[in-house]
Write a structure and sequence with these properties.
With 211 residues, the chain is of the alpha+beta class. Helix content is 22%, strand content 32%. The chain is built from three helices and ten strands; from the N terminus they run E-H-E-E-E-E-E-E-E-E-E-H-H. Strands 1, 3, 5, 6, 7, 9 and 10 form a seven-stranded mixed beta sheet that branches. Strands 2-4-8 form a three-stranded antiparallel beta sheet, with no helix packed on it. A hairpin with a 3-residue loop joins strand 9 and strand 10. The chain is rod-shaped and about 135 Å long. The N and C termini lie far apart (118 Å).
Length: 211
Amino acid sequence: MIFSARLFSASVVLALVGCAAADVEVKAWFPDSPSLEFVVGQPITAILGVRNNGPEGFNVTAVQGNLALVTDPSGNVFNFTGAAYQYPEMGADEEVVVQYIMPLPQNLPPRDFYLSLKLFSQGEDILMKQAFNETISFVEESKLIDFELLGLYAIFIAIVAVIVYSVYSYAVGQGWVKKPKAAKKTEVRTSDKSEWLKGTIADKNKSSKQN
């Protein structure tokens, strides 16, 4: 069963903090991102290991998470939807593993945030235990080919080419730079000397001999 984070009013949360049980041991880890780097837009999966170190039994009832700015860990930037659980009562020295999934919105900026996870349990009283309270990092999804970056490079190259051409054209117009002269065409002369004798007496003599 899923419930909205708004069901926990500020006064109720403060009351739960005041009666947190030391006998409830909670450890959190993130199997998909042990480095605590998460891709924006992809859900965060948290695994909570809960152990009862006291003599009295209790039930794990809910987990609630929220994000805060690193500069203000006690504040609140985004509330994840809380998740309710119906586990059997945990006796002394018993353990249970709880999975909590937090969908990330696409509009979160890639930066560091403070992630807080709270575990709620119920025995004789409703208790709250801080399960996780550390800095995590949001990063953008890596792309094999970043077409946006390639497009920016193409635009930059085109702008540079236009600027260079404009400066060159202006310099030529001002006479600062002279256009390169066209290369002169060189005549290709044949090695056949008979071409030189055409129309001369030697050419006539050669023709008569051949006859």
